Amino acid sequence: MRLLLVEDDEMIAETVLESMRRAGYAIDWAQDGRAAELSLGNDVYDLVLLDLSLPKKDGIDVLGAYRKAGGVAPVIILTARDAVDDRIRGLDTGADDYLIKPFDLDELAARVRALLRRRTGQKQPVYAHGDLTLDPAAHEVTKSGEQLPLVPREFALLQALIEEPTRVFTKTELEEKLYGWGEEVGSNTIEVHVHSLRRKIGAEEVVTVRGVGYRLKRI
């Protein structure tokens, strides 16, 4: 899942970015309304976290233009504007949820999960590959019925592979799925995640295709 955070306050942004990344999401950051519009034009986001008081273009105007252009990703407004009229305007313009600053990060994460579940049709599919199963909604992976303790990056890596188990993913493609803009990604980061994932699910489960990338084993 890839999120977009639109927030001009650097301190708030860094806190939200860290929290969402710990939860396993790839998240990008736009710092003003114009940058947000350019980012949303790429149509790659599963959910948007949108401040209203933005430089260059107000958040309400960004939201209205996004909906008029056919944008369908859920939008959670994060703002200090707590007047009832502001909340009504935001929801009427196309927001799916409205959270007043300062907010609790755990509550934000719960609202993100709820909207993502709703977007995928109430219930996300449970993926199975051999004796591996991955349940995105429950954030659980099992092998032969035994639950495996994957950290968020390992979970995101396995989810990318298991969604398209016959496809060979390049390192660059996996980096794009696991990381947002501006995150530092070391030259061997994906190899480290693959090594860690193999230790937990079995070395034979993830196949290295030399000179190309990685895929799940054939079954």
UniProtKB/TrEMBL annotation:
> Taking every annotated instance into account, which residue ranges of this chain make up the domain Response regulatory?
2-116
- Gene3D superfamilies recorded: 3.40.50.2300, 6.10.250.690, Winged helix-like DNA-binding domain superfamily/Winged helix DNA-binding domain
List, alphabetically, the Pfam families matched.
Response_reg, Trans_reg_C
One GO cellular component term of this record is:
protein-DNA complex
Q: Which InterPro entries match?
A: CheY-like_superfamily, OmpR/PhoB-type_DNA-bd, Sig_transdc_resp-reg_receiver, WalR-like, WH-like_DNA-bd_sf
BP-aspect Gene Ontology terms: regulation of DNA-templated transcription
Annotated ranges, domain OmpR/PhoB-type: 124-218
Annotated region of DNA binding = 124-218
Per the record, residues carrying 4-aspartylphosphate are 51
| Record flagged with keyword Amino-acid biosynthesis | no
Transmembrane stretches in the record are none
One example GO MF annotation: phosphorelay response regulator activity
Q: Which UniProt keywords apply?
A: DNA-binding, Phosphoprotein, Transcription, Transcription regulation
Name this protein carries in UniProt? Response regulator
Q: Which organism is it from?
A: Paraburkholderia acidicola
